[in-house]
From TrEMBL:
This is NAD(P)H-dependent D-xylose reductase (XR). Substrate binds at residue 112. GO terms for biological process: D-xylose catabolic process. It comes from Heterodermia speciosa. Belongs to the aldo/keto reductase family. It comes from the Eukaryota. The active site is at 50 (proton donor). GO terms for molecular function: D-xylose reductase (NADPH) activity. Pathway: Carbohydrate metabolism; D-xylose degradation. Residues 18-301 form the NADP-dependent oxidoreductase domain. The record marks 79 as: Lowers pKa of active site Tyr. Keywords: Carbohydrate metabolism, NAD, Oxidoreductase, Xylose metabolism. The gene is XYL1. Coiled coil: none annotated.
Length: 325
């Protein structure tokens, strides 16, 4: 089983369902990527900040070596971290990340946050995280225009087939579109029934930008980060509306939440180290929710955001986590 694809404005096809590498432990990452490929996953969403790109590449290399897939069968995604927004730092760090993955190009390379931080030499600390010296957040001076122009250069040089953005709001996207020679192919945002961001989703679609949802299960994604807000929020898996709709379709609450997104044309990147759930998460386009069911789930919106860089100091990351997504 593999995921259906969606055509990006760059002309390339992207799987609608992928495997997210955020919070995947280093000691299990290679095996998880390898097993996910065996289960049918073809899109893997990584980032410098996740600290597991070498291990992700090892899982990919194993699957290719065994003939399970070819490189061109995969859609590999990574992200530019905040510390590398200066125009002359974008290409070198992208090349380092490609070396970590053991590949020649990214299918999609994304600006992780619209936040420029002071440069940290990878030889000194990598990934650098949000803080410069372990304590202070030091802003950088690069504008989004400077960073995006350098991102466009990656496409020109064949280092990335498509480029995108993450955690941008509508105003920032409008500004970017004034000078962009290459329109972002994707917009990755926190998106779940507690944070539907309907206006932003519509805006992106109106500009032919595919939306990818992260943290599709809402607070569930942040419990292991010991976030108090997540602990205080009822789990979507236990929500009566979600459970009722899931039971009606003989699906799990997780599958129902993922279908709520994919049926509306939004890509998803869940993760699991359980083989059964891997298959379940991939099988979220084989059934349809009714319009009323989609509306019921959307009606759970609370405008409740968990991933807020301003609250980074309140989060206790996992050992391999330097940022929050």
């Amino acid at each position: 089983m593999t995921s259906p694809t969606v055509k990006l404005n760059s002309g390339h096809q992207m799987p609608l369902v992928g495997f997210g590498l955020w919070k995947v432990n280093n000691d299990t990452c290679a095996d998880q990527v390898y097993n996910a490929i065996k289960s049918g996953y073809r899109l893997f969403d990584g980032a410098c900040d996740y600290g597991n790109e070498q291990e992700s590449g090892q899982g990919v290399a194993r699957a290719i070596k065994e003939g399970i897939v070819k490189r061109e069968d995969l859609f590999l995604v990574s992200k530019l971290w905040n510390s590398f927004h200066d125009g002359d730092k974008v290409e070198p760090i992208c090349k380092k990340q490609l070396d970590d993955w053991g590949i020649d190009y990214f299918d999609l390379y994304i600006v992780h946050f619209p936040i420029a931080l002071k440069y940290v030499d990878p030889k000194e600390r990598y990934p650098p995280g949000f803080t410069y010296d372990g304590e202070n957040i030091v802003p950088g001076k690069a504008s989004i225009q400077e960073t995006w122009t350098a991102m466009e250069g990656l496409v020109d040089k064949g280092l990335a087939k498509s480029i995108g953005i993450s955690n941008f709001n509508g105003q920032l996207i409008l500004d970017l579109l004034r000078y962009a020679k290459i329109v972002p192919a994707t917009l990755q945002i926190e998106h779940h029934p507690y944070l539907t961001q309907e206006g932003l989703v519509k805006f992106a679609k109106d500009h032919d930008i595919i939306v990818t949802a992260y943290s599709s299960f809402g607070p569930q994604s942040f419990l292991e980060l010991d976030m108090q807000q997540a602990k205080d929020t009822p789990l979507l898996f236990d929500n009566p509306t979600v459970k009722s709709i899931a039971d009606k379709h003989s699906k799990t609450p997780a599958q129902t939440l993922l279908r709520w997104a994919t049926q509306r044309g939004i890509a998803v990147i869940p993760k699991s180290n359980n083989q059964g759930r891997l298959a379940q998460n991939l099988d979220v386009t084989s059934f349809d929710l009714s319009t009323s069911e989609l509306d019921e789930i959307s009606g759970l919106n609370k405008n409740l955001r968990f991933n807020d860089p301003l609250n980074v100091s309140s989060i206790n990351p996992c050992p391999h986590m330097r940022g929050i997504d």
